[in-house]
Design goal:
Helix content: 55-70%
Strand content: 5-15%
Radius of gyration: 15 Å
Order of helices and strands: HEEEEHHH
Low-confidence stretches: none
Shape: globular
Largest sheet: 2 strands, antiparallel
Number of domains: 1
Mean pLDDT: 90
Length: 96
C-alpha cells in the first residue's frame, strides 16, 4: 500500500469532517517516472495477459472510466510484484 501511494496509484478521497467532496484522486506528489512505467506495464498487461484483459473488459462493461480501470490494473501489478517477492516463488498464471 505504501509503495502504491509512492507511485501515485492509491486513490484518496477529499474529506472535511463528515463531508466527502468530489471524487477520489491520486496524489500529485507521486514519483511520476515510476507511474509512467507502471502505466505502460498496465496497458501491455491489458493487451497480453488474459486475466488482466478479462478484468479490464468486465470493469469497462460495469461503466467504469478507462483511466480508473488502468489505475486499478497498475495496483494489481504492484500487488502481484510484492506477492512474488514476499513468497520468493515465480508467478503462476491461473486459467481464466
Amino acid at each position: 500500500r505504501k509503495f502504491a501511494c509512492y507511485c501515485g496509484v492509491a486513490p484518496f478521497e477529499h474529506t472535511s469532517g463528515i463531508s466527502i467532496r468530489g471524487k477520489t484522486q491520486t496524489s500529485s506528489l507521486a514519483n511520476k517516472e515510476v507511474k509512467v512505467y507502471l502505466t505502460r506495464a498496465a496497458i501491455t498487461a491489458i493487451s497480453w495477459d488474459p486475466q488482466m484483459k478479462a478484468y479490464y473488459k468486465r470493469k469497462i462493461a460495469e461503466g467504469k472510466h478507462k483511466a480508473v480501470v488502468i489505475n486499478a490494473v497498475r495496483a494489481k501489478i504492484i500487488a502481484r510484484s510484492f506477492a512474488v517477492i514476499r513468497r520468493q516463488t515465480p508467478f503462476v498464471t491461473l486459467a481464466v
